[in-house]
């Protein structure tokens, strides 16, 4: 395993590789094959409301309500409806790991102060990014993550300085397309389980402005190889209901009624009408699969829309069947298609690399994990001294 992480021949494109202070991970070779992924289990969950205030409950969880009949109008459902009233989350606010860490504090306080231990604590979105790197490098943009060792764990956040920027020209259309995704979530969900919703609540659900401050997040415990991970991520809805916590106080994942089994990921995609569309969709399924797999979300529902944003139909996919679907597809190409096991093996190597490379010293150091678009390496380097911690002060105080 050792030579897996050694410095490779420097490539001319990345001057960083010549810097002795930069540790690199070669994306093509770094694999821990056969690293087992532990079945995730939910530790806790929480909600953001319309004002982005955090609540230690499941008030923002939506429940699936999607009928083919509702879409059977002439053109389908116009996902652009209400775009002029879109209440958009202020993305200039850097939330770091706040929601996740606050959820951990609340959970630990409710359990007599017992700490939830792991090796790595992070958002699902950034593990998805890492996991997809072996297959998505061509068009992918540069990104940077911050990591810090504290209280026996490595915390990883996305660095706000490096957030993706889109070309000005495409901006309006991309805003609208992002809105379609949120509008789909609105029309596909109701605020309470079906039996508890009034007809009015069901009928009027699409009349409220779409507000993407509202989110429901699950915090799960999982493991990859010998790395224990705590992952926070958004869950779009429950297919029917969420089992009561008191029915499974120890979060036993083998119990029949485990909350994760009820969760559903919602996505939109353009209707597939030609081979290229099918190829693009299969490529996109890598991210969709990875994101759902990491949180243990078993079901994905894809709403298919026209190029102009009219939702016409939807289809359900079982998360665990997606990798095999890719292998069996008529577009499968062993050189270019993605492979779920390889993605997992890369993520395992990546986490192992971080765990062995970041010194287990609680000195407040911040480490930068950097990927430069179209390069073959992940880079790790210490940030200049004096960078403030990105951990929520309440969490630092709580764990000290
Ligand atoms: P779709 O991907 O279904 O179009 P998620 O699917 O992860 O729950 O995200 C919900 C929606 O947020 C997406 O719906 C998309 O509209 C929007 N979204 C997510 N990530 C985005 C990104 N990086 N850029 C723009 N929009 C994004
Ligand atoms: Mg979502
Ligand atoms: Mg979604």
Task: Give the key terms.
5-stranded mixed β-sheet; 9 helices; 400 residues; binds magnesium ion; 10-stranded mixed β-sheet; alpha+beta; binds adenosine-3'-5'-diphosphate
Molecular structure report:
By secondary structure, the protein is α+β, with helices and mostly antiparallel strands. The chain contains 9 helices and 17 strands. The strands form 3 sheets. A 10-stranded mixed beta sheet has the order 1-17-16-7-8-6-11-10-2-3, sandwiched between helices. The protein is globular and about 65 Å long. 35% of the residues are buried. Residues 5-12 and 164-169 have low confidence and may be disordered. Adenosine-3'-5'-diphosphate (A3P) binds next to helix 4 and strand 13.
Topology readout:
Blueprint: E1 23-26, E2 37-48, E3 54-55, E4 63-64, H1 68-71, E5 77-78, H2 98-110, E6 120-123, H3 124-132, E7 143-150, E8 153-158, H4 171-187, E9 189-190, H5 199-203, E10 215-224, E11 227-234, E12 237-238, E13 263-270, H6 275-295, E14 299-305, E15 310-318, H7 322-328, H8 340-357, E16 367-371, E17 377-382, H9 393-399
Parallel strand pairs: 6-8, 6-11, 13-14
Antiparallel strand pairs: 1-17, 2-3, 2-10, 4-9, 5-15, 7-8, 7-16, 10-11, 12-13, 14-15, 16-17
Bound molecules: adenosine-3'-5'-diphosphate and magnesium ion (2 copies).
Adenosine-3'-5'-diphosphate binds at residues 178, 181-182, 234, 236, 267-268.
Output mean pLDDT: 91
Sheet having the most strands: 10 strands, mixed
Class computed from helices, strands and strand pairing: alpha+beta
**Can you tell me the residue ranges where pLDDT is under 50 for at least 5 consecutive residues?**
5-12, 164-169
Number of strands: 17
Radius of gyration: 21 Å
Number of helices: 9
Strand proportion: 15-25%
Identify every distinct bound molecule in the structure, by name, code or SMILES: adenosine-3'-5'-diphosphate, magnesium ion
H/E element string?
Answer: EEEEHEHEHEEHEHEEEEHEEHHEEH
Portion in helices:
25-40%
Strand order of the largest sheet: 1-17-16-7-8-6-11-10-2-3
- Cα distance spanning the termini: 34 Å
Form type? globular
């Amino acid at each position: 395993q050792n030579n897996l992480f050694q410095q490779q021949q420097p490539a001319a494109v990345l001057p960083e590789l010549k810097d002795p202070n930069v540790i690199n991970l070669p994306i093509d070779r770094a694999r821990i094959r056969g690293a087992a992924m532990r079945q995730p289990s939910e530790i806790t969950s929480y909600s953001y409301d319309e004002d982005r205030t955090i609540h230690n409950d499941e008030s923002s969880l939506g429940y699936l309500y999607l009928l083919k009949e509702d879409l059977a109008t002439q053109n389908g459902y116009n996902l652009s409806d209400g775009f002029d009233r879109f209440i958009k989350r202020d993305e200039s606010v850097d939330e770091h790991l706040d929601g996740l860490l606050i959820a951990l504090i609340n959970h630990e306080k409710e359990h007599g102060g017992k700490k939830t231990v792991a090796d790595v604590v992070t958002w699902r979105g950034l593990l998805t990014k890492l996991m997809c790197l072996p297959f998505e490098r061509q068009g992918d943009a540069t990104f940077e993550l911050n990591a810090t060792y504290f209280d026996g764990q490595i915390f990883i956040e996305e660095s706000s300085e490096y957030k993706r920027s889109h070309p000005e020209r495409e901006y309006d259309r991309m805003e609208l397309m992002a809105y379609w995704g949120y509008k789909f979530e609105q029309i596909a969900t109701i605020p309470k389980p079906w039996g508890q919703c009034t007809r009015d609540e069901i009928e009027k659900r699409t009349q409220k402005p779409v507000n993407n401050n509202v989110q429901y997040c699950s915090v799960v415990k999982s493991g990859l190889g010998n790395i224990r991970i705590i992952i926070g991520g958004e869950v779009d809805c429950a297919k029917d209901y969420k089992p009561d916590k008191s029915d499974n106080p120890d979060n036993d994942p083998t119990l029949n009624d485990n909350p994760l089994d009820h969760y559903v990921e919602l996505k939109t995609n353009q209707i597939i009408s030609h081979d290229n569309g099918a190829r693009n969709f299969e490529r996109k399924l890598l991210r969709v699969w990875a994101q759902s797999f990491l949180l243990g979300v078993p079901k994905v529902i894809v709403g298919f829309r026209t190029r102009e944003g009219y939702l016409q139909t939807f289809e359900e996919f079982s998360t665990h069947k997606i990798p095999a679907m890719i292998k069996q597809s008529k577009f499968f190409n062993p050189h270019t298609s993605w492979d779920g096991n390889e993605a997992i093996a890369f993520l395992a190597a990546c986490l192992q690399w971080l765990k062995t490379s970041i010194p287990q010293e609680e000195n407040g150091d911040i480490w930068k994990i950097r990927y430069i678009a179209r390069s073959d390496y992940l880079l790790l380097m210490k940030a200049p001294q004096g960078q403030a911690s990105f951990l929520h002060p309440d969490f630092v105080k709580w764990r000290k």
